[in-house]
Amino acid sequence: MVRLRLDLGYDGTDFSGWARQPGRRTVQGEIEQALGRILRLAEPPALTVAGRTDAGVHARGQVAHVDLPVAALAELDRNRRTTRPAQPGAGVGGAAGDRPGGGLDGAPEGVPAEGLPPDVDERLATLVRRLGGVLEPDVRVHRVCVAPDGFDARFSALFRRYAYRVSDAPGGGDPLRRREVVWHNRPLEPDAMNAAAARLLGEHDFAAFCKKRDGATTIRELQRLRWVRDDGGPLVATVVADAFCHSMVRALVGALLAVGDGRRPVEWPAQVLGRAVRDSGVHVAPAHGLCLEEVGYPPEAELAARAAATRRVRTASAGGDAPFEDE
Questions:
Q1: Which reaction does it catalyse (predicted)?
Q2: 139 and 185 part of one domain
Q3: What is the pTM of this model?
Q4: Exposure check for the chain: N or C terminus, fewer CB within 10 A?
């Protein structure tokens, strides 16, 4: 088997979220079906993702991995529509050894480098091109590479970085950005929002800002939450944490919007956090303003240890290997 890392992005408007659901169009379902079709697999392969985004949420820097039989890569050698070698970075993230995910020396544990075809980078570039021809325009796999030892898209991650975009323009938001920017019908004061956000940073039980899920922990480390105005236009929140529970970012945004427009005092979000129960006054902000911008990973030598440590922490706190990241 060989583990591949996929870097991808999507417009979440017409998707019922990331996770595969019978009878619904999802990002996971679309990509798995495309991989199965291109590689002529008996069953679509299962993707593991860094962030299971909710319906309507976008992603610019999503990361996933998939485990495939090495023999499946042979399918990419058939009828390849290329007459020249792939250039470094042509869909596979650069030359082997100098990109995240590595090259031949980054084969998953238990798969010797010599077990992979010598032209594996070219074949993976072919896979990226074929995915571009099969997938709809609202989802794109930007690169595919052989993952380094110990890489797990979900458990190896150090952080997830989201952005939330909201316009408080008096006449409404830019119609050309209506799929990614939420319009708020009251003027917003970013200084007050940032003062309230600063009180939420650190490791806490964010149960007050999460949708309850059986067996899932709500303890998170919120590393950054700050608002800036984008060149006099929309306000953009940068939100970074080790992981997020279901609807956490949008609930935090909803609470801070209430502070920014003067409906709530600066102290209120921290008071809600301290009660550790859902507050009816916290309104979850609309999904389309949210975008997963980046997933951060440690150096290759630390990937396996990070994944093992994350599994231990989440399993112990949740009482099992339950979902812990979902926005």
A1: uridine(38/39/40) in tRNA = pseudouridine(38/39/40) in tRNA
A2: no
A3: 0.86
A4: N
